[in-house]
């Protein structure tokens, strides 16, 4: 049984997460467990959807309908990561500023979205994972 379509997005998520942790730790000069989550380089979401689109392209071809669906989904996820989630982060910052004087206020997470560089790094990570999985399963 071939589980590569199930395994590839998970591996892409794992690789992107490990890379993000290493990069954040190097930037912070300490283990960056507190920086795990939304945002950062590479984008986990972009890595996941790009890995599936790339694997479909490698195995089924660019003309396969599943590739079109995967690219469409990837495009929506990346637009969301760059625009909508960034706006949510800006709103969280404004709310935190307004509510900072309230007793017991728990700050909202402000780092939500991704820059284009972080998304591009996620795409490259996802494509690289898909390529490795494809090469390992080549018959």
UniProtKB/TrEMBL annotation:
Source taxon at top rank: Bacteria
Q: Transmembrane ranges?
A: 6-23, 35-56, 62-81, 117-134
Keywords assigned by UniProt?
Membrane, Transmembrane, Transmembrane helix
Q: What InterPro entries does UniProt report for this protein, alphabetically?
A: DUF212 (IPR003832)
Q: What's the protein here called?
A: Divergent PAP2 family protein
Q: Which organism is it from?
A: Hydrogenophaga bisanensis
């Amino acid at each position: 049984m071939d589980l590569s379509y199930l395994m590839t997005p998970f591996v892409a998520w794992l690789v992107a997460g490990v890379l993000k942790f290493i990069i954040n730790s190097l930037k912070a000069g300490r283990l960056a467990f507190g920086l795990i989550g939304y945002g950062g380089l590479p984008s986990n979401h972009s890595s996941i959807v790009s890995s599936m689109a790339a694997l479909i392209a490698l195995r089924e071809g660019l003309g396969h309908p599943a590739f079109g669906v995967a690219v469409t989904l990837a495009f929506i996820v990346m637009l969301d990561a760059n625009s909508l989630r960034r706006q949510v982060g800006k709103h969280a910052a404004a709310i935190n500023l307004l509510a900072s004087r309230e007793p017991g206020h728990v700050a909202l997470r402000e780092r939500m979205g991704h820059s284009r560089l972080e998304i591009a790094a996620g795409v490259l990570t996802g494509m690289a994972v898909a390529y490795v999985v494809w090469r390992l399963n080549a018959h």
